[in-house]
Design a protein that fits this description.
This protein is of the alpha/beta class and 302 residues long. The protein has 10 helices and 11 strands. The chain binds ligand LMY7XDAE.
């Protein structure tokens, strides 16, 4: 039988509010020097989840005191038109951060689009220059992807800044979450394993982790008995599933872990919703503020 070990839910909502408050305070100071951070968000098509995220980003940017620009493009837009818009935003001094909401329709080469964003405005941290900086420890000027950066702050809430002697397993190897997450954990001196859906004995690999970051995008794939007693568990998955026994068609969000089972063994665990998700948007604000500060040679709180 499993037993709770000083279990605590890590509220991403609270941590995100704390970051946003710090962003607001520094933005208000910068206003005195005539500096206003500017964030441009581009969305192609009408995917409902993407619409929700983009609208949340715009609202949060305004709440922070930023100049917020949104460009909605039709699903059939030509790649060249999107690239021309990014080129114009790259040259616009009022814009410090540019983000293209993913996923993009299949006729557009997402890699080409992401690499066309000026590295110093790449607040998603997806450009090769920023990926390389993170990978080589040049974190002073790197933009770190928002979801792993936010996850790392939640891990620090439990373990502090150094993770020496701790074993971390990242389940998932995406460029957006898995790989940058592994680099951040490594930079904090954790012993890191990147596992994925084709890893043999995935359950046993997970079971040896002091910190487990689940980013596979498969609802409740990681079971409670895969979690070491007392581990810290970060659930990056945001999966919409049909509500069992509820009204037909009604859905709810679940993570990549079975929360109830994992919570019974974990020392600390992030919920879905209300865990890593809100941190993604807060870190976007932090990155945009940093981009504005770097552009104007001003100091940034992050
Ligand atoms: N250009 C990018 N595209 C995408 C990114 C990204 O970082 N950059 N990440 C995801 C989506 N995403 C932000 O864009 C995102 C996902 C989830 C949340 C969030 O706050 N989730 C809430 C639940 C919201 C709901 O009810 O649906 C939560 O977990 O509490 C924020 C941002 C893919 N695309």
């Amino acid at each position: 039988m499993t037993q709770a070990v000083n279990n605590r839910t890590i509220s991403g909502k609270d941590a995100a509010e704390n970051i946003v408050e710090r962003v607001k305070a520094r933005t208000a100071e910068l206003a005195g020097a005539g500096i206003k951070p500017g964030l441009a968000v581009i969305i192609v098509g009408s995917d409902p989840a993407s619409q929700v995220y983009v609208s949340a980003k715009g609202k949060k940017a305004e709440e922070c005191g930023f100049f917020s620009f949104k460009q909605q493009l039709p699903p059939e837009v030509a790649e060249d038109r999107l690239l021309a818009l990014i080129e114009a935003l790259n040259r616009d001094p009022a814009i410090h951060g540019i983000l293209v909401q993913l996923p993009l329709p299949s006729h557009i080469d997402a890699g080409k689009v992401v690499q066309s964003i000026a590295p110093e405005k790449d607040v998603d941290g997806f450009h090769f220059i920023n990926v390389g900086k993170l990978g080589t420890g040049e974190t002073r000027t790197a933009f770190v992807p928002c979801t792993p950066a936010g996850s790392m702050i939640l891990i620090e809430r439990i373990h502090g800044k150094g993770l020496s002697g701790l074993s971390a397993v990242v389940v998932g190897r995406s460029n957006i979450v898995g790989k940058p997450m592994a680099n951040l954990l490594l930079a904090a001196n954790a012993t890191v394993t990147i596992a994925h859906s084709r890893t043999s004995n995935l359950d046993a690999v997970c079971r040896q982790a002091d910190i487990i970051v689940a980013a596979v995008g498969r609802p409740r794939m990681i079971r409670g008995d895969w979690i070491k007693q007392g581990a810290t568990v970060i659930d990056v998955g945001i999966n919409r599933v049909l509500l069992e026994g509820g009204e037909p068609g009604k859905t709810r969000l679940v993570g990549d872990l079975d929360f109830g089972e994992a919570a019974a063994r974990a020392r600390a665990i992030t919920p879905v919703p209300g865990g890593v998700g809100p941190m993604t948007i807060a870190m976007l604000m932090a990155n945009t503020l940093r981009a504005a500060c770097l552009a104007h040679d001003a100091s940034a709180p992050f």
